[in-house]
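User: Can you predict the 3D structure for this chain?
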Amino acid sequence: MTVTDGAVSGGRGDARVRGSVLVAADKFKGSLTAVEVAERVTAGIRRAVPDARIEAVPVADGGDGTVAAAVAGGFERREVAATGPLGEPLTAAFALRDGTAVVEMAEASGLQHLPPGVFAPLTATTYGTGEVLRAALDAGARDIVLGVGGSATTDGGAGMLAALGARFLDARGEPVGPGGGGLAALASADLTGLDPRLAATEIVLASDVDNPLTGPKGAAAVYGPQKGATPADVAALDAALSRYAEVLEAGIGSRAAAAALAPGAGAAGGIGYGALVGLGAVFRSGIEVMLDVLGFDRALARAGLVVTGEGSLDEQTLHGKAPVGVAAAARARGVDVVAVCGRLALDPAALRGAGILRAYPLTALEPDPARCMAEAGPLLERAAQALAADFLR
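Assistant: Here is the predicted structure, written as structure tokens:
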């Protein structure tokens, strides 16, 4: 691995770049939004090449930051009163343009809405996400991208469906409690009251997660601990989600069982399952969906070099994260791709395999992680300046 002024090489730069530079990076989580990343990269490139033609398309893979990326791409931001994961009132946003809405479940049901150090693995609800979806329908949306990720919840999307008119009842005919824990008492499910507009709406489940609903690779086992679930909580949640799927199968037939095993069912605490079985959603890679929505292909047609990236380029990046999706699209068009990142945990061979010629990690400029995050903006400008010197002069 070769490091030069913050650059880790996965290939050689081509100084004969023609066309504009397209900046299409995701957020640096905890430091910079995708929009801020684009601004800093643009500023750094202009230091080295003042007359460079630069176009920015901030991207997201369906997780937190997806609405912001859509707004940056020309969608209108709409705000709505919603219910947070703990049942508290909050204001969430979705993005709307020409009848297409981008809904980000983290806006209403994300971990960022929990107080510091507080988790609610058994009771956190996706009810607010259902309220945002209903608001999108009220605003005239007939195509909805539901981006999932960064959730505080493991309720299989039951809260979301309840907000849209479904009923989940215990043996006494009373609504079950909120969250995945409440599903342990589920005796019957009725989806007939779901908002009828959903039947005429195309809904895409946008996620980089292809886990099933339950089992060792399911929503509770894999992601529950990140939401504060103890081993006992994980076992309880997995059993409750299994009960949920069984009751739905009894009510609507075998498609409920098939949906529980489908890729994406386990996304964001199982909200993927709720979207597949209750909303008739179609699962697609989050970054592929967002690139389509944001008009990335049109911008790519004008580009001679693409700059992508995210906070950490690592093994997870290779499994459907934004930089790999951007690189795949660019490679199909024969456009070179380089990356910026906070930290780099991929070797040059892995970078080349992902279609990235070279990566510029901020930790090569400032090895102290705390300072690197605190000073991410100025460091990113320096990395982008080095990138421009390597590829644009």
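The chain is about 35% helix and 20% strand. Confidence is low (pLDDT under 50) at residues 1-6, 8-16.
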